[in-house]
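Quick one: structure for this chain?
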Amino acid sequence: MKNNDIQTTYTVKVPENKAGVRLDKFLTDEIEDYSRSRLKALMNDGHVTLAGEPVCDASKKVRVGEIYTVFIPPVVAAEPEPQNIPLDVIYEDDDVIVIDKPQGLVVHPAAGNADGTLVNALLAHCGNSLSGIGGVARPGIVHRLDKGTGGLMIAAKNDAAHRGLSIQFADHSMNRAYLALVWGVPIPPKGEVEGNIGRSPQNRKKMAVVERGGKYALTRFKVLKVFGGVVSLVECRLATGRTHQIRVHMASLGHPVVGDPVYGGAGRSRRSKLKSPAREAVDALEHQALYAYELGFIHPRTKKKIFLQNIKDNFINTLCLKLETV
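Got it. Here's what it folds into:
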């Protein structure tokens, strides 16, 4: 398990069935938390050793019984700066804030997105109250939505609220429901998708339903409307919260989310069945047609149930109006 605050060390031994494999591929297979490019960078920096000596050649063929040590140095997080980015606030009090995150907005600063994130916007909106809550790099953040997924998202404004909300996310007691447009018509129209999610063995940049390893995931879905047998509006409820869970689970059923740049390939051929302006609307999508429309939680201080929905005023409904022409 990764911990960005301290140095993490992995020790991996080469089994018989891995003999002759490239070192970078072997390490990527064994250490699923890190990409091949990240491990290559660690090699170049001398953080991968064999018998105490740095190994920098990523193409080196490993031998049976060799023991490699990989050192992951601690991340020194830069403290985000407040930025005046408009927020669509759905609910706010002294403890929590719920916003409607637009598609395309990154939640917290990371490689490639040093600023212009939700964290930068929250720091400007909430002021010093967020300082240090949840860590320097992710103040106030207790969960996240993918960059391309819009919808309701909650943040904590003090330590007590952060702890209370984090517990609800950890024990899966928070209500979270999404609207998704998917290719085709799921049959049966209501059910569950169950399957561990982990790194795809074929592509480490993608998640997948895996037979071994990964983390348990459960998604409950219900078809709400069908557009000409080509696209369906589906409600998805999360019983767990894994990376790309809905996108991976719906794709595993053969009904990927419309517009999904990573998992939507199997459905793109169906776009030719759409009529204008539905086809133009789908082609114009820059992100997956997935929206977190419902959020229910126990207020960490008052202990009252708060239930929020945005059924009408979201981009999924705008797309549905275009799909009526199918």
